[in-house]
Design brief:
Helix content is about 50%, strand content about 15%. It is built from 9 helices and 4 strands; from the N terminus they run H-E-E-H-H-E-E-H-H-H-H-H-H. Strand 3 and strand 4 (about 115-125) form a beta hairpin.
Length: about 260
Amino acid sequence: MSLFARRRSAPWPSPSAHDTATAPIVPEAGTPFSLRDEHLPSRVPSLHFTIEINGRWNLDDGSPLRHHAPDSLARNHLREHAARILRRHTVLAIPAARDAVNTVIARPLAPEPGLTVHGMACLTVSDADQALAQEHLRRARQGDLDREETRRRIDFLRAVLSDPDQRTAWWIDQYPERLAELKHVQEAVQGLAPPRDSVRDTVEDEVARFVDRLLAEMRTPQQREVFLRALAQTLRALGSTDLQNAATRWLPSPHPEPG
């Protein structure tokens, strides 16, 4: 008896009744072949799966095969299918990648008329690639956090600098020794729009901004009265009775005629 343990592949889990009922029917007859220690790129091209495929190929009766090497064609066909699928998966999710590959290659496939192939795949990942994948994921998450923090700071500055009152108070709080520069800041940010709420509809956001600017332009009671009378007439023409009544209530009471 050898003193060294023999290298064995990981045992396949026994299928459940549901898996057996829904699994594709794979023909048992055919010529067996295998692919060993194939390195195929994952979603991150520099990180690879190590894949082993045990398959079979069949020559269909009555259909002449034009390819001179059916076994080579079968290997290439299953390898290409597996490589195409694995490019969408990460090496940190081996079970999901294996299931995705087997969902495709376990069914009978026909690379050429007269030839049918199918197979089952087993995936492994080297310790080095798995460590690199963990580092790649950590950096990607940190980058997402950094970009989110930058976006949050920009939105905050836009909200403050686009509002005259907040802008003045913020500048006095942040730079009390540079009050003389406030005028230049106000000139530089003219026309700066506040941050847009992604939840709100774009048209709704534009209308709200228009109304804000409109209200800012009505500086005197006479201007407000002219606007409200014109608005009430427009709402009456549109048939919006409730809005018309609300606008009319905001109008100042008519002064009594002098007797």
